[in-house]
Amino acid sequence: MNIAEIADRLNFEIVCGSTGKNNMVTWGYTSDMLSNVMGNASEGNLWITMQSHKNILAVALLKELSGIVLVNGHRPDTETVTQAEKEGVVILATDLPAFETAGRLYQLLKENEDIQS
Known about the structure:
The chain is α/β, with parallel strands linked by helices. The chain is built from 5 helices and 5 strands, in the order αββαβαβαβα. Strands 1-5-4-3-2 form a 5-stranded mixed beta sheet. The longest helix has 19 residues, at 98-116.
């Protein structure tokens, strides 16, 4: 399932990086600690976090994540958006809390996995 399909199905706003909307999502990862994400997230994961500063871009690029979902109404600042566009990092946003966002993403990916099987 790709970023655009997930954004559409879960009503996430595509804030920036629309050139990556076809990035395939392998699974999700939730953490607000950058070091935790660097140590444990996997390539293709869609990262759920409330962190919205530009350091999230470096982590997403390092780990080759499919994108980032900002929760609790957090939005990136202009500098982060500009850099994300330049680097091709997709940032999505939702007003939902992390727990609900993770649950909805999990359910959607599992349903899609079952359909593919």
